[in-house]
Design goal:
Number of helices: 12
Strand content: 15-25%
Number of domains: 2
Structural class: alpha/beta
Number of strands: 18
Shape: globular
Amino acid sequence: MNVDGTPYRTIWLADDGWAVMIIDQTRLPFDFVTRRLENVSDAAQSIADMWVRGAPLIGATAAYGMALAMHTDPSDQGLSAAYDTLLATRPTAVNLRWALDEMKALLAPLSANQRAEAAYKRAAEISDEDVAICSAIGDHGKPLIAAAWEKAGKARPVNVLTHCNAGWLATVDWGTALAPIYKAHDAGVAVHVWVDETRPRNQGASLTAWELGQHGVPHTVIADNVGGHLMQHGDVDLCITGTDRTTASGDVCNKIGTYLKALAAHDNGVPFYVALPGPTIDWTLHDGVRDIPIEQRSADEVTRMTGRTDGGEITTVTITPDGSPAANYAFDVTPRRLVTGLITERGVAPASADGLRGLYPENA
């Protein structure tokens, strides 16, 4: 995708061929800043402190973190320590463990002097595969938006509501929930996006709105609680969100607040789709509400907000009374019964065990 006309992925190798470059997403939308990662600690910090975020990008970053570790210490001890360090960074996104397991399975049988080259090669493949997967998600989701435009007689834009950021910033490129929107927009379909601000951390207001603007997609930022009102008044044609983990039965875990949007969509007859790559499916879990670990992050993300003053200064302020505690549940689970369909790189499937097995028979 483009930033001020320059094409970028969210993660790439530095010019020296071994260090890893990322976009520091905590600085957006006010500053576009890249960071250089030189060791596994840097990679772990980038995931834990959310310089990078989004399940697919977390997986790619973890893979490159393993490569950085092998560049520094390709011993068995170095491999094991890197795996454990990276695995501990974020508990919810299944792509993290998937990517680390891929790397460990590849590297463990190799001799120490073979590991670095193999690790960089596989990390690059995981990144390229993610780009292809997200592009295919866009191809399969685009007809849903085009059909809604046809249903409206092409008299007005299709109104899509999304939650959090599931665009190219959450992946290596294209995105998941936003990929169908980008593909539809590029194909000439008139589309407008309602962008939930997505408290806490405001990934919608700061990231989704920023990248939609970079791509020229019409959009409007709304408070998180506006979605139900818009649906009641017929101003939402469909919802598309991403997911950080999907169970084998079709339950989806995504940014906190997704469940409430799904309930509102169900109550108002608005289709609710979830876009996901195959590696985001956790085939070992079947009951999302009971089995998916929900990350609880720092209360500061609830009690404090960062923004730009009228004078141009970037500052962080406290918005709650002194002494008031805050809880910060980062994700919730939307049961499969509320999901109209799952948009994957292999097609659109019902949110069910049979639907997923039909697209991924190798995991049956």
